[in-house]
UniProtKB/TrEMBL annotation:
UniProt xrefs under Pfam families: PBP_like_2
Species: Nesterenkonia jeotgali
GO MF annotation terms: phosphate ion binding
PBP domain segment(s): 2-277
Name assigned to this protein: Phosphate transport system substrate-binding protein
InterPro entries xrefs: ABC_phos-bd_PstS (IPR005673), PBP_domain (IPR024370), Phosphate-bind_PstS (IPR050962)
One cellular component (GO) term of this entry: ATP-binding cassette (ABC) transporter complex
Length: 311
């Protein structure tokens, strides 16, 4: 987000955008509370949140536009495992639920017959804050596996005993310091951690911006919110070759109605910059995110053009 705000002020020097790094849940809460004019979130608003947005955004409420696509990496630090691990959804879910406790468990070995796995205890590390990354990862566990019994939420299930840290930098840092640790994080920020290739159909797919974009392309739009909404129901159970289903779409959330022309113009201009080729190149250079497609860009431009001033 900082790359976008810096880039926007370079092309619109008279504009001022103040960004608060409060996480996806905090961003949505602040937006719905009227604290922010627009918000960034790695998870779409729920139907209940959208209904609340009608109080500040008019009858059509708020809407989402996709701002970037990123794989969520399943990343680990285990002495003796220096290459990508192959795992299916059930095994990943069992690890994060605490049902698999050592790295040489037969469920892990089954997918990695050529690796000599150490008996190191597994330490699960999760986000302590309300996080869009958590919500997307748990949605994958709940949808793609048959063994995850916990609610999909931006907050990690309290019933699971595990280590935690604030923000992406916190979980990556703690995992990097802990032999046997495993976590999930925006793939652009995992540093030197080793990662998991996820089973999709009969193959194992490593994360990449292209593989994440392929998963989104096979997904369907969310229904029942604003007519210009561009949030997606992600297909976590895809068997499309080359698709990486542990993916998040980061959204910018705007009101369909703003109280004055100045705020409406600023929101629209910032949104247009974010999805522009320049804005997407800025994000790709700063964090390695997958640029949105021309088709998504055209749709987002049309959605932004619907912004009006309340009467």
């Amino acid at each position: 987000m900082t790359a976008w705000t810096d880039g926007f002020t370079s092309v619109a020097p008279d504009a001022q955008v103040n960004y608060a790094s409060v996480g996806s849940g905090g961003g949505r809460d602040g937006f719905l509370g009227g604290e922010y004019d627009f918000a960034g979130s790695d998870a779409a608003m729920s139907d209940e949140e959208w209904e609340s947005s009608q109080e500040i955004c008019g009858p059509e409420g708020a809407f989402h536009i996709p701002s970037y696509i990123s794989p969520v990496a399943v990343a680990f630090n285990v002495e003796g495992i220096d290459e990508t691990l192959n795992l299916d959804a059930d095994t990943i879910a069992s690890i994060f639920a605490g049902e698999i406790s050592n790295w040489d468990d037969e469920a892990i070995a089954e997918h990695n017959p050529d690796l000599e796995l150490p008996s190191t205890p597994i330490s699960v590390v999760h986000r302590a804050d309300d996080s869009g990354t958590t919500e997307n990862f748990v949605d994958y566990l709940a949808t793609a596996s048959d063994v995850w019994d916990y609610e999909v939420s931006g907050e990690w299930p309290g019933e699971i005993a595990a280590e935690s840290a604030q923000q992406t930098s916190g979980v990556v840092g703690l995992t990097s310091e802990t032999d046997g640790a495993i976590t999930y994080a925006d793939a652009s920020q995992i540093g030197d951690l080793t990662t998991v290739a996820v089973q999709v159909g009969e193959e194992y797919v490593e994360y990449s911006p292209e593989a994440a974009s392929q998963a989104v392309a096979s997904s369907t739009p969310v229904e029942g919110q604003a007519s210009n909404n561009m949030a997606y129901e992600l297909d976590r159970r895809t068997d499309e070759s080359g698709a990486y289903p542990v993916v998040l779409v980061s959204y910018h959330i705007f009101c369909n109605e703003y109280p004055d022309q100045e705020t409406a113009d600023l929101a629209m201009a910032f949104g247009e910059y974010v999805i522009s080729e320049d804005g997407q190149a800025t994000a790709e250079g700063a964090a390695g995110n997958a640029p949105i497609s021309d088709e998504l860009r055209d749709g987002a431009m049309e959605s932004l053009s619907a912004i009006t001033v309340s009467e």
